[in-house]
Amino acid sequence: QVQLVESGGGLVQPGGSLRLSCAASGFAFSTHYMSWYRQAPGKERELVATITRAGSRINYADSVKGRFTISRDNAKNTVYLQMNSLKPEDTAVYFCNAVRSADTYWGQGTQVTVSS
Fold first, then answer.
1. Which of 32, 40, 74, 103 is deepest in the core (most CB within 10 A)?
2. What separation in angstroms does the CA of 97 have from each of 58, 74, 103?
């Protein structure tokens, strides 16, 4: 069955870094656009970054530009989110998302907490 499994979340101090991973299985990973979303308590889920199938195009939310980097390894069926210069407002549950036409898959999320 389809699975997206996020890992790499945790507690980090402001200014620190984390690298999230999302391992995919059960579908043709390389044919799907991959994205990271996040949802903070009491807020709507928001798009953080998207990468196209071969990684030729990438888009970021303005709030993370210059600090976060999305990448993918189609040989490993994995998408990554490198997060640097983390701020308390980056605290949220981060979700992995795969999209192709009408197909949309979600992971279960991984908590990222930025606090001193």
1. 32
2. 14, 15, 10
Place of tokens 């196209």: 52
Q: What are the CA-CA distances from residue 98 to residues 5, 37, 50 (Å)?
A: 12, 11, 10
pLDDT per residue as tens digits for the range 34-69: 999 999 999 999 999 999 999 999 999 999 999 999
Provide the residue type at 79 as one letter.
Answer: V
Residue whose C-alpha is closest to residue 8's, from 116, 112, 115, 86: 112
- In angstroms, the CA 63 to CA 110 distance is 19
Closest CA to 18 of 64, 85, 73, 65: 85
Distance of CA 50 to the CA centre of its chain: 8
